Amino acid sequence: MADKTELKYTAAHEWILVDGTTATVGITDYAADKLGDVVFVELPEVGSTVASGTVVGEIESTKSVGELFAPVDGTVLEANEAVVDSPELVNSDPFGEGWLIKVTFETLPELLSFDEYAALVAE
Amino acid sequence: MTASTDNPSSDSPDSPDSGSLDSGSTSSDRTRPASTSPDSPSTERLSPLHAIHVAGGASFTDFAGWQMPVSYGSDLAEHHAVRTAAGLFDLSHMGEIFVVGPEAAQALDYALAGKLSAIAVGQAKYSLLLTVDGGIVDDLVVYRTGDDRFLVVANASNRVDVARELIERSADFACEVYDESDDIALIAIQGPRAHEILSQAPTVEIPGLDDLKYYWCRPGTFGDRGEHELLVARTGYTGEDGFELYLSPDAAAQLWEALMETGAGSGLVAAGLASRDTLRLEAGMPLYGHELGTTTFPVQAGLGRVVALKKEGDFVGRQAIEAGPPADARVLVGLASEGKRAGRADYLLFAGTESGTDTEAPNPIGVITSGALSPTLGHPIAMAYVEKAHSEPGSPIFIDVRGKRIPAHVVSLPFYKRESR
């Protein structure tokens, strides 16, 4: 499980682990709690091009539908098949086994720090 | 990501509520987080059990002006617990309105769709409060607690309307209407082990509990000296056996904890409004604001039997009900589909053939009112209003799930029925 304080965040409640030119993306524990039990996850195809801020996947709970936004412009390197098979991983380990996609990018847009995101959630 | 909750939660004993789990957000609301408004309540009304829910790790939602628990961690686990063991629900937000007096029964015969004068003391009846035009103001459970005394339980969001209508409609009868909602708490214990747990709870005395039939109620007591009065009803909104316990708010926390302690070894869990909604949906029970509303005739919702057209005298809505809805009025059906992607409230429906979408008929033929991936059945289910031509079980229908057409078919309600024992 990633160190939450080292991650970047978006206002759409996603976390991003930056490693070189690869961004690993998931949703935060806050988002997972708000959704409730996740029962269905749809992720983009590996190799597809994604644009920052566009919808690239869906996360459904019994009561809600959440959308996954690409946080960066880039190409999908990997989609977490384990989460597609076991959507409950999003609830049980949102920062670890519940990661969703890995995207290669060229430039990183401005993202929120842990403190900035914590302040956003506290509002 | 963004989320939007479009599946509201249920509210009443055998009757629902128009409030949404997610007040203010709809499926088109793409700002986040939309699912709940837990930590910064815009509403001030708290259940007498609020502190217990906080201690139990509940997440909360604004529900008809109340902060009520959505779940205590896992709505799916709570759902399964009610189907296999038991769940404890706080329904203290419900409206409790008494109609009392020598002509209380006649007043209700006039005010409501059913023939309440025909029920015995100790009996309960599901009923409707209709508009003059035959629409549904609210669905209700009415308990006859004495010869001249009835308890009308209304959805939280409709409590004020129901109380006002009952006062107006009973004006010419010898009876009084009292809205006691603020002085009554409601705890429901639901599930196959509910009876066992309730009968073992310390200091809960309910004479005749073992013989209490479905949709009957009787008085009981609670406390070391039997100091708290209970009204115990074998009713519910989950499709399981269970009981609803009306009592003073002052005693609610003590009863909740006694039941949780008694049921701990039997699989009893605290259950929130999210699981209540999926439970009632599987059981095919309508939810006010979704399946029911002021523009819905009872017969469209499959509730024609609730309207006692044969009763003597006039009642509000009779003329409109006798005339019936327009010939092209849509009717409520169940839908089932495969996969995991559920159609949800407000999603449009299109005619289908066995080979796919009927491109000759591009206009929607219906709309979903409630939908979810059924936790018990494992596939998506929905309730929907469709044109009569598409309402027969087996009819193929396509659900527009955010731009994708998902094949489904009409099934009879309920989706889930417990085994009788």
Automatic annotation (TrEMBL), chain A:
This is Glycine cleavage system H protein. Belongs to the GcvH family. Keywords: Lipoyl. Residues 22-104 form the Lipoyl-binding domain. It comes from Glaciihabitans tibetensis. The modification N6-lipoyllysine is found at K63. It holds the Pfam family GCV_H. Its cofactor is (R)-lipoate. The glycine cleavage system catalyzes the degradation of glycine. The H protein shuttles the methylamine group of glycine from the P protein to the T protein. GO terms for cellular component: cytosol; glycine cleavage complex. One of its GO terms (biological process) is glycine decarboxylation via glycine cleavage system. The lineage of its organism: Bacteria, Bacillati, Actinomycetota, Actinomycetes, Micrococcales. InterPro entries: 2-oxoA_DH_lipoyl-BS, Biotin_lipoyl, GCV_H, GCV_H/Fam206, GCV_H_sub, Single_hybrid_motif. Binds 1 lipoyl cofactor covalently. SUPFAM superfamilies: Single hybrid motif (SSF51230). The glycine cleavage system is composed of four proteins: P, T, L and H.
TrEMBL record, chain B:
Keywords: Aminotransferase, Methyltransferase, Transferase. It is an enzyme of class 2 (transferase). One of its GO terms (cellular component) is glycine cleavage complex. Residues 330-417 form the Aminomethyltransferase C-terminal domain. Signal peptide: none annotated. Residues 49-311 form the GCVT N-terminal domain. Its EC number is 2.1.2.10. It comes from the Bacteria. This is Aminomethyltransferase. It comes from Glaciihabitans tibetensis.
